Each structure stands twice: as structure tokens, then as C-alpha cells.
Amino acid sequence: MEENKKKIMGTLEENVAYMNEVLPVKESFDLVQRDIVIGGKKSSFFFIDGFTKDDTMLKIMTSFFSVTEEKMPDSATEFSRLLVPYVEVDTLSEFDGIIKNLLSGTTCLFVDGYEACIVIDCRTYPARGVDEPYNDKSLRGPRDGFVETIVFNTALMRRRIRDPHLIMKMTEIGESSRTDVAICYMDDRVDQELLKNLNSRLEKIHVDDLRMTQQTLAEELFKRKWFNPFPKFKFTERPDTAASCLLEGKVVILVDNSPSAMILPTSILDMIEEANDYYFPTITNVYLKVSRALITIATVFVTPLFLLFMQNLEWLPEVFAFVAIKDTVNIPLIFQLLILELAIDGLRLAAMNTPSMLSTPLSVIAGIVMGEFSVRSGWFNSEVMLYMAFVAVANYTQPNFELGYALKFMRLLLLVLTAMFNWIGFLIGCVIVIVSIVCNKTLSGRSYLRISKN
Questions:
Q1: Beta bridge partners of 52
Q2: Between the N and C ends of the chain, which has fewer C-beta atoms within 10 Å?
């Protein structure tokens, strides 16, 4: 965009000609140029149809039509101050800023003889209602959630934190997309070293666009190793969760066109938290957290331990002898477990792409009919089906989708190593799991297991 660093000219004809040269005004139906006369001077509006409020523009233009030549100021700054009947008004003298604002949805006004452009922010973005998040629900908490418009999202947090120390800095990333990114933090509570590190990384990002919004930004911020699947960031669609994290001294990153917030720094204990933990009495809160942590650990080790004991029946205590497989094993246990792992993901993907009115009955049919007949036909043993059913359901006890798949990959690693090397493989797998968690560093450089001071 270096060619747009050009300064605005004094004549309307030159400015309009340059805007038409840089922007496809005649080719794009939604790029509108509206020529009018204000106080005896030729003027031109540039705006994007769909972003500009028609009723607001009508009132502004009606006000301009009543301006006489005697009332016309000598500069664009005085014009914006005296004659523009709107709150959000600015003047820009470089085409780079003008074009960026125009493509963001603001209305740009050129007046003959003024060496600056009047920018009127009377835009409105298409947005859905502020409804409760689909995947991050709360039993007692508020029912509002983030939407795809960044200004709405900042307002939802500002509504909850009426503190002058709340800072929301706006920047843009992407040469083509020029996506708005807001960095939100409490100035008196944030880790200044983390904030400095984050700003430095953001300045060094040079990408053409943030096509996958937050995911692209996360990958650019932290070039993580592909073999460590544990997430570096926590995502939430709840404004109350984001506001609580701000009050704990964390940083929240909002990306335009994304209905969720990135929270950092984070730990594995933060990952398994959810909003319901904060809307119940303390003892209930502690119970829910401990239960979720134990179930999360169980999802990793239940099936590998089952496989290990089935390979070493002599290790099984007599009191637990009932867990041993009594039926004939037609397919080796390791292949049964791996096939079921794949089948569960297949059912999950099918449910995601199934119309909502059919997802529940089809899930019931798939779970009951396929499960029952797969056991009767001899493909799977009932004990294997039971433990895999527990694992499939237990994955939903923690809300983080990325963490769920990270734990799944650790479980698959344990299963394969246990099947290949018996108890030695199981121990090696446990070491790999622990090392993967302990050595996983957050953006601040601190341990993944570190608990927040707040």
C-alpha cells in the first residue's frame, strides 16, 4: 500500500480522479460516489453501500444543503467542527488512511479547496443478535455472547468493567484484509513483560490476511511445534469469562469477524475451567473442578490401563477380576480400541453436518443400533464398547475442543506403545504425556502447569 502514502490535493477533480484510479468505483456496485454542492463548493461522498446508515446520511446531507457560501469555513478541520452534525468525525490528509477508513465502512467527504478529507463514522455492520453461545453455556450466568463485530464485543466487556484502567488498543493485521485486532488488558494488573512481548510479536507479524481470523493470528503469534498438540491459548465466547480474566491480570485479544476471545497467558488448569464453576457456592465449585480434572485424567488413562491389564491378567487384583473379558476376542483389543476411536470421530463429524432436527434421532440410532449389533456380530467386545463410551462422553466434561483432541492424541500414543511394548511402552507413554505438558510453554514463557497468582 505504499502508493497510497500520497498526500491529498487541493482540487476536488484531482482527489476524485485518484480515488477512482485506486478503487474500482465503476466496477463495484457497492462502492458509491455521490456528488453534491455544499455552500457553493463542489463535493463528493465516497461510501460503501451496506455499511452506511441511510437515515443518518439523509440527515447529514440535508444539513449540508442548508449551508450558504458565507458560512463555508476555510479548512476541513473547521468544517468538521462547525458544520458536520455527527459525533464521530475526523480529518485525514493521506490517501492511505482515507482508503483504509473507506473500506472499513466509514463515509469520506471531499470538498473542493480543502487539503484534507472529512471522515464521518456513520457505519453499521451486519450483525446477529447478542445471544447465548452455543458451545459455552451457563446454568445461572448471563445469556449474552460475543458476536462477529469487534466493537460490540469490546462494549460487552466495557459494560462489565467500569474501570479507567481497562485499556483496549486497536491495531490492524494483514496487508490485504487489514483486519482489526483489539488488545484488552487492565493497566494496573497486567504482567507488563507479557504485554511488551505480545506487542513486539504483533508488530513483527507480516501476513497478507487473517483468513481464519483468530486461528491465523494464534499461529503467527506462537510458532508451536507440530508434535506438541496442547493449545497455547484459551478461547471463550462469553463476555463474563473474558471480563473475569481481565480482572485476573490476563490479556484478552479480540479479532474482528470472530465471535470468540483469545485469553493469555493460560495453563492447563485454566483450560478445564468453565463458566458454571463461578456461579455456584464454593464447595460446589471445588467439587466440579476436582471432578472435571479427575475425569479429564481418566479419559487419557482408562483404555490404555484396560489394555495393559488385559495383556497381563496376572496383575489384575482378584477384587477386580470381573473386568476381564469373558467373551471370545475375534479382533485384537488394540485394533478394537483404535477402530472405535476413529468411529467416534466419524459420528461426531456426522453429527456436526447433520441438520439440527435430525441430529438427536440419528445419534440415538447410531449409538444404540450400531453399538448393539457390532457387539453381537463379534466385531467388538462389550467391555471395550463400555470403556470407549465412557471416554467419548467424558471428553465433553471439559469445554476446550483443542485440549480434548490433545488428550485424545496422548491416549492413542499410550495405546500404541502399550500394545507394542507392554508395560515398558505404557511407562514410556506416561513419561511422554508428562513431558509434553510440563515442557509446553505459554506466550509469556512460563510453565503450562503454573497457577495464576490471582
A1: 123
A2: C
Write the pLDDT tens digit of every residue in 306-341.
999 999 988 888 888 888 887 777 889 999 999 989
Instruction: Give the pLDDT mean for 97-106.
Output: 90
- How wide is the angle at C-alpha 364 spanned by C-alphas 361 and 370, nearest 5°? 125
For residue 1, pLDDT over 50 is answered with no
Whole-number Cα distances in Å, 286 to 75, 382, 436? 64, 34, 26
Cβ-contact 331, 379 below 8 angstroms:
yes
- CA dist 432 and 413 (Å) reads 9
pLDDT at position 234: 87
Q: What is the DSSP letter of 348?
A: H
Task: Note whether 386 and 322 are within 8 A (CB).
Answer: no
Cell matching residue 236: 471463550
pLDDT digits (tens, 9 = 90+) for 124-143: 877 777 777 877 777 778 88
Omega cis (within 30) before 85: no
Q: Is 33 helix (H, G, I), strand (E, B) or coil?
A: strand
Which 3-state string (H, E, C) describes 273-295?
CCHHHHCCCHHHHHHHHHHHHHH
**Contact in structure between 145 and 157 (CB atoms under 8 Å):** no
Nearest Cα to Cα of residue 122 among 153, 154, 85, 159: 85
Beta bridge partners of 35: 44
Beta-carbon contacts of residue 86 (< 8 Å; ≥ 6 apart): 56, 60, 120, 121, 122
The separation between the first and the last C-alpha atoms of the chain, rounded to the nearest angstrom, is 44
Q: Work out the average pLDDT over 43-64.
A: 89
Q: Mind listing the pLDDT tens digit for each residue in 334-379? A: 999 999 899 888 877 777 777 665 566 666 666 666 667 677 777 8
Strand order, beta sheet including 89-92? 31-38, 41-48, 107-111, 117-120, 89-92
CA of 247: how far to CAs of 166, 324, 452, in Å? 9, 51, 12
CA dist list (Å): 414 to 66, 152, 299, 310, 359:
78, 45, 12, 15, 32
The residue written with cell numbers 492424541 in the block is 409
pLDDT value at position 357? 59
Instruction: Using pLDDT thresholds of 50, 70 and 90, give the confidence band for residue 2.
Output: very low
